[in-house]
Amino acid sequence: MQPLPVRHWLEPAEENRRFLLLDGAQCESLDELLKQLHGIADSEIQLFDGLLADGSGNASVWLHQLQAGVDVANLLVWLGGKVKSFGALTFIDTALSEGELSQRLMRRLDARFPNGKEFLARFYDGRVLPWLVNVMTQEQRNAFLGIGCEWWFVTHAHVWDVLILTAPQEDLYDPPLQLDDTQRRQLLADTYPYTLIDHFRLVDEDLLDRVPRNDQYRFIRGCMRVGENYGIHDGKRVVMICTWALLLGEGFHQTPDWVLRLEDFLEGRRTARDIGNEVWPVVESWD
Fold first, then answer.
1. In principle, which of 115, 116, 163, 257 could form an S-S bond with 151, CB 3.0–4.6 Å?
2. Burial (0-12, 13-18, 19+ Cβ within 10 Å), 87
3. DSSP tag of 56
4. Cα Rg, the chain, nearest whole Å
5. What whole-number distance in Å separates Cα of residue 126 and Cα of residue 163?
6. Beta partners for 89?
7. Could you read off the pLDDT of 197-243 as tens digits, one per residue?
8. Is the Cβ–Cβ distance between 47 and 23 less than 8 Å?
9. CA 180, CA 64: separation in Å to the nearest integer?
10. The dihedral formed by the CA atoms of 102, 141, 213 and 223, expressed in degrees to the nearest 10
11. 138: Cβ contacts below 8 Å, ≥ 6 apart
């Protein structure tokens, strides 16, 4: 894991408190991490219990009110070795009490697709947060962000960015968050690169790291667009397009030979193995 991005952190305004929102699914040794955070947090509240039944993982989400004067830059250096990805943590500056903030955040967890299927609005994942807010209507956004002053997160380009919040005395948000089909498709398209990045991180990290880490989201999203241009949307074939781009460069698909290969790949005339054997033929050696 790379060190978390650096920025100059000012103390929150006098009337505000700073909270750390922590996604347990993206943390190493969560229980030990929580114990160590006790020393710098005035309080902690579990937004929901994500402990797996067999104890093999813990996707719980925690809200910590940091003590006044905590050096966030030093905290990030320490946290850098304890998180699996930069989406594990975000910071919220707000004048709301920890109880009121936690209640408002919990009300924002419930979401629903047009077909009635319910899902978790994963705003606590800093990778998802900006894309989720981006697909909302202005009315949805105004209500959803009514939790404070500022919400800091790490972008796909590995720099800190902020959402400007409001904090009405009465929470105007009316759950659940309801996304229409257009919003749903856009959210899935915008967040799927992280699924692909996680896949390559697991199966071939060296191949993925041919692209600088702060450029991997853009690179993978571009590969998805190549697939979309050929009508290729299913995960396995999108993975192959990403693999070829990582091996050959992101402009690989522009040559006439590759245009034909991708058309054949879409129509089922050639498999990924067929294409691989053609581009990288096995040469037998009798040495």
1. 163
2. buried
3. S
4. 22
5. 11
6. 22
7. 999 999 999 999 999 999 999 999 999 999 999 999 999 999 999 99
8. no
9. 33
10. 140
11. none
How many CB atoms sit inside 10 A of residue 272's CB? 16
Residue 259 CB partners (closer than 8 Å, separation 6+)? 253
232-241 in b/e form (b: 16+ CB < 10 A) is beeeebbbbb
- Are 147 and 92 in contact, with CB atoms under 8 Å apart? yes
Q: Which residue has the tokens 């994500």?
A: 50
pTM over 0.85? The answer is: yes
- Cβ atoms of residues 90 and 37 within 8 Å: no
Strands 177-178 and 110-112: parallel
Q: Which of 287, 222, 286, 234 is nearest to 265 (CA)?
A: 234
CA distances from 232 to 75, 83, 144, 223, 249 (A): 43, 33, 34, 11, 19
- Written as six digits, the tokens of 162 are 């902020």
**Percent of the chain as helix, strand, coil, to the nearest 5:** 45, 15, 40
Q: What is the pLDDT of residues 262-286, one digit of tens each?
A: 999 999 999 999 999 999 997 655 5
Q: For residue 9, give the amino acid letter.
A: W
- The torsion of the CA quartet 230, 232, 237, 242, rounded to 10 degrees, works out to 60
Q: Which amino acid is at 260?
A: L
Between CA 24 and CA 212, with CA 33 as vertex, the angle to 5 degrees is 65
Element containing residue 20 per DSSP (H, E): strand 17-23
**Among 53, 52, 170, 149, which residue's Cα sits nearest to residue 103?**
170
Give, to the nearest 10 degrees, the angle between helix 235-248 and helix 256-267: 160
Q: Give CA–CA dist 270/262, Å, rounded.
A: 9
